Amino acid sequence: MTRHQKRLSAPNAWPVERKTGTFTVKAGAGPHGEAGVPLLILLRDVLGYVDSKKEARYALNEGSVLVNGDAVSDEQRPVGMFDILAFTEREEYYRVFPEEGGRLALTPIDADAADGRLGKIVRKQDVSGGDTQLTLHDGSNLRVEDASEYATKDSLVVDNETKEIVAHFSYEEGALVTAVDGSHSGEIGEVDEIVVTAGSGDNTVVVDTGEDAFETIEEYVVVIDEQFVDDEDADDSDVSSDDEADATDGGDDE
């Protein structure tokens, strides 16, 4: 397996400039699978806090950069949708959120909103001991004694410190959702109708945005909390790589 990642072949969700250089850093093993963005890209290409991999390693070794409440020292650690990125010394907090085209961006949030992260339930299975294991969209697992109220496609808020479930949002008509992929990525609205497709085809969902409506497949929507709408209203200037294009030389990863 190659240790290199060409910019042109990087996942569409990665917020990197495609033609400013040949290579970019390759994501390490971790959550979110291939869609996970290496932390170095966010620090260097998006935020412009460092200019090189060496500077990123030095900054991360200070222990003041947190992902979902945990200090991170690996610049290749994958960061993905709905993760919480905290810079404790700067007192800056961001949520990773999809924007138009499915590209991930950093939405500034306040400290209170950074206490927990959102996760979509993608699998639910019984495990030994009578408990139930819930698998979230980023690959993490939660073990609960009573899972009767939880279903796949529901969303949970997990406390970053205790790793306990602190909120539950059901996937149903009337639920507030955002599209995280497809042509409507980044749009927010309420589920107006869930259309069940017979056979092996994907179910679809009609989402009312208040001004318009769109239809997409169930896989592309995630139930969210009202605070996501508050974040959008409070700050419409998500940080993306286009905003910080001059912060990186676009060359190598050293």
UniProtKB/TrEMBL annotation:
PROSITE patterns: RIBOSOMAL_S4E (PS00528), S4 (PS50889)
Keyword RNA-binding on entry: yes
Domain Small ribosomal subunit protein eS4 central region intervals: 91-165
Keywords, ordered alphabetically: Ribonucleoprotein, Ribosomal protein, RNA-binding, rRNA-binding
Gene that produces this protein: rps4e
Domain Small ribosomal subunit protein eS4 N-terminal: 2-32
Top-level lineage group: Archaea
Pfam family, one: RS4NT
GO CC annotation: cytosolic small ribosomal subunit
An individual GO BP term: translation
Region of interest: Disordered: 229-254
UniProt xrefs under Gene3D superfamilies: 2.30.30.30, 2.40.50.740, RNA-binding S4 domain
Similarity-based family: Belongs to the eukaryotic ribosomal protein eS4 family.
Protein name in UniProt: Small ribosomal subunit protein eS4
